[in-house]
Amino acid sequence: MRTCVAIGVLVCAGAGALVHAQQDTWTTDTARRMGLRLVESRNAAGPPAYPVAPGDLLFFTNVGTSYGAKNPKNSVVVIDAKTKKPIAVSDLEPAWSEKWTSHGIGVAPDGRYVYLPGMAPTAATNPGSLLVLDGRSLKIHQIITSPAQRPHHVKTFEDWMGRRRVLVEDFNWLGRGQMAAQQGTGFYVMDPMDNNKVIGGMTPGDLRGTPYAGFTAPDGRYLYYSMPGPEFVLAHDLKGWLAKIDMQTWTVVQNLPTAAYPIWTVFSRDGRFAWTTHAGEAKVLKIERATAPGQFDKVVGEAHTGPGPYGLAISVDERELWVADKGEGVAPGQRRTTVTVIDAATNQVKQTIDTRCVTNDHVIASPDGTEMWATCNASHEIVVLDTKTYQVKTRIPMPNQGDSHGGTFVYYTKGPSGVVAEVVADQNGLHGSAKEAARKGGPWMAR
Fold it and tell me: Which homologous superfamily does the CATH classification assign to the domain defined by 3-439?
């Protein structure tokens, strides 16, 4: 049986529970204002797609069908972080996976859900959607769509009250040369403990610009969004800025002018400093954050990188910044292969590592700080780097030669009623027990 619902285009899917308006308890005022729709809810029960035991550390990534991939279907890939071997690949129905691609992935803080932001090959049948999968069966639990139909990145964070949240952002450009009128939905925050209801968010109109990638400060109250120029094709000519957002009030409290085409932001654990990559000028800017009322964030330094820097990670000891030199916006295309390592105190380049990881967009620090995992869009692999020696430890080919974008480390421990999962690191930094160990100054170790 197939079920369909009209949301501007006709959405059809396999057997599942349709969400009728009169039964809708998911749509919040924010979701309604932003045009976010829970298209379908399903029973995702089923046998586990992969085994887990206390002490396991797994890495969740995705393989799409772009960047020359031979992969026919968009999928979640689960990798054993100790053996560096894939142990599971999701098998989603063709209507929501065939020829689709994802440029990011996220996992709920307790491992309950996997978020796959799928972009569709065409909106004529099914629109691009955020697919919420059951974290163990890897089957579809929810299908959420936005007016832009181009979900991009997903990250987890803990807010200023200690509440666990999930941040989702649309790909707010439709392509090179596309005008501001074609911007996406913006970003929104969901409560994974309450059926992934939308509890906050902002549109490009709210921000008076085009948000690209957002990251939360250590206090969980402030959210920083990179804001490139208003038209992608002019990103090299128009300077960008960082929008500092107070999530208590959902207002912009500062627009900090930056270099051209800002993208990725990381923070020191004490929240005093932040760093942002700038693809338009091949540099990282260092920002001193305001520490008292009436003060404002300010740029206090810069460091040079390889061409078109994109993703950024800070080492667990906070001494180094690891930059993915993707070649973003650089002719003849996003096919660069280096990682630049910068001294966080002096802003000097320490190492330039040629990883042969083609079109490396994200770098994610392992929870113990000994490794950096680089996702390689165009060489269809993940390259694991040793943070001590700066050498490549291993290369993990992606199943079906799919393109990998981002990832999340999930750790499993023994709980009162079975194995318990926790996210310990993702594109938004350390989380859970790994973050607590770093705060105390000690190493995190899988028990």
Answer: YVTN repeat-like/Quinoprotein amine dehydrogenase (2.130.10.10)
